Structure formats: C-alpha cells, structure tokens
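Throughout our pipeline, every protein is held as a single compact record rather than as scattered files. The record that follows is passed on verbatim for readers who wish to inspect the format.
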Amino acid sequence: MDSHLKEIRLDGEVAYDGKFLKVSRDRIQLPDGSISHREYIRHPGAVVILPLLDDGRVLLERQFRYPNDRVFVEFPAGKIDPGEDHLACAKRELEEETGYTATDWRFVCTIHNAIAYSDEHLELYLARGLTAGEAKLDEGEFLETFTATVPELMEMVKAGQVTDVKTIIGAFWLEKIVDGTWSPA
C-alpha cells in the first residue's frame, strides 16, 4: 500500500552503544533508488501513567531533566525492561515513583514521540482506584509529586508550563475521558 514511500535498509552499524540508548547509522535506498543515510536512536520503549484520583484530580510529578537543564511537569513514566509486560511496567513505575497503586487500569494509546530520529514508543495507561503508599525511587532518582485538576493541567499546557509531549498528549486524553467524549480501551 505505501511501498512507494518505503526506504530500504542496505546495511548499517551501531554508532554508539550506551547503557540506555543505542545510536544506529544505516545506509538506505530511497524510493527513487538513490542512496542516503539515516542516524537514529534505538529506545526500548516506555510507559506513561495517567493517574486519576477519585476526586477527579490527577497526580503529576516535577522532575529535573538534565538535557534541558530544567524541572519539567510530567506524568509518571518509565522505561520498559527487556521482556517486561507493558501493564506490569506501568504498575511498577507508578508505585516506584509515586507510592500509589491502582485497582483499575485501562490502556489508552501508543504514541511515537520522536519519529524522525528514534524508534521510541510510549504506552499510555489510565490508572484509577488509587491508594497512596510510599514511593520506592530508583537510586539517583529525585522527583516530587503534586495534584491538579484536569482544567488546571490544561491551563498549565496552554500557558507553556507543561511542554513534555507525553504529558500534553496524556492531558488531552484525560480531558476527553473525564468529559465522556472518549473512552480508553
């Protein structure tokens, strides 16, 4: 169906093999037959949790992100370990980062947040029936949690206080879920 747009990998190499990310450099054939190169990041994928409290507020995090040298407002999220079930990862990450557990989990959607230079995919889950507990942060992980209403979160997006793509997409999904326009799987 889209074969007239497909690029074909001819050969390639790992340009960088880090603990977390790998960078590949491939030689490819373009749809018109010419040869070009693509460099891209290999990422194992991650989960994003949209934690909705019984009172309608959402649980959010503030965390410093080194590449951009600032604190970001985000939904809880984390890397999927090799062979790990996506929902199991979401449950683990929610509890590790926030201390909360949830009794009601719904898959929302998959997003690809950097399609031009990464194969990263993010699996979004709605978590309800939340119970507070004690966070179990990874060594070297520092964050704080807070709550906001969905309208407050949307105002933070509008004002440019939330710029993280997974959180913006999650916020738009939550707005539609809460008002009954959309429903998760």
